[in-house]
Write a structure and sequence with these properties.
Substrate binds at residues 14, 16, 170. GO terms for molecular function: 2'-deoxyadenosine deaminase activity; adenosine deaminase activity; zinc ion binding. Its EC number is 3.5.4.4. The protein has helices at 21-30, 40-47, 56-60, 64-69, 73-88, 111-128, 148-156, 181-189, 204-212, 229-237, 246-251, 263-268, 287-297, 302-315, 320-331; strands at 8-14, 92-99, 132-140, 163-169, 193-198, 218-221, 241-244, 273-275. By secondary structure, the chain is an alpha/beta fold. The protein has a single domain (8-317), classed as Alpha-Beta Barrel (TIM Barrel), CATH 3.20.20.140. An eight-stranded parallel sheet has the order 1-2-3-4-5-6-7-8, sandwiched between helices. The longest helix has 18 residues, at 111-128.
Amino acid sequence: MDFCSLPKIDLHCHLDGSVRPETIIDLANDQNIELPSQDVEVIRNLMIAPETCVDLKEYLTRFELPLQVMQTKKSLERISYEVFEDAAKENVKYLELRFAPLLHVRNGLTVEQIISSVVKGMKRAELDYDIRGNYILCILRTMPKDDIPQVIEAGAKYIGKGVVAFDLAGAELAGFCHDFVKEAKAARKKGFHVTIHAGEQGNGQNVQDAIELLKAERIGHGIHIIDHSGGFKAVRNGNVGLETCPSSNVQTKAVQDIESHPAKRFYKQGLAVTINTDNRTVSNTTMTQEVQKVCEQFYLSQKDYVAIYLNSVEQSFASDAIKQELRNYIDEL
């Protein structure tokens, strides 16, 4: 397979984990923020998580530097544009980018200003490149719950105009879903789709809870349903999409190595598996690399890739019209 030319879809990618190191330097200088170095390679190394991370917490420390410069409308629009640009240049046809608006309020931006800025950057990229996209709004599970309604309210104004879904992310504790039933219901009522990070560091029960309690339509990662029958059945019976992120899962020790990643097993068992980057910079990866890694490691054919691509089409939160556009790309293979 020519992995570069294959059409691709990325449904699980974080904005703040996908910033160009060069952009960090430019924005820091523009905002008078002192950096450890002006050397792009030094900054790049500070942003990339090692493959030997102890756990997810260590992985998440790599987001601290990008967040320093992502506190203005100009920087958010630029970074949004650039992530879509980078994806488009490797033949990603559709990208659902996610971020936590409340991480960008340090300098006084409102949540609506933050959301409008990233959507503006995305829309500009859609005009310049052959790519379509949407945004998923994340809530970090460790944040004060009182702040969640303002994200839902501000985001609801952009439903169908660049925002499609609600997500819970960050450190994963057992049983967390019980604490967010009210918030997920409020989001659904406003028209948000729901995808939840679950079963990455926690057990499969979190996946089952996300589907049964929060009505999740997709699951971010979901690795640990491999040893939890309830979580597995909830995913299979509900045709819930699994947003697998192979490189990231190795780094965070959700799996020990790529050989032990359950993506192929899940695919062969008929689950709606998708392949994604998670964080282009922090995981030092691209969609091309992720697709190639999975196909070569698990001896998947082009027919298998087409099936996974079509899973991504069906599991996306895109409009019916865009879904048909995405199917057309694979018909041309």
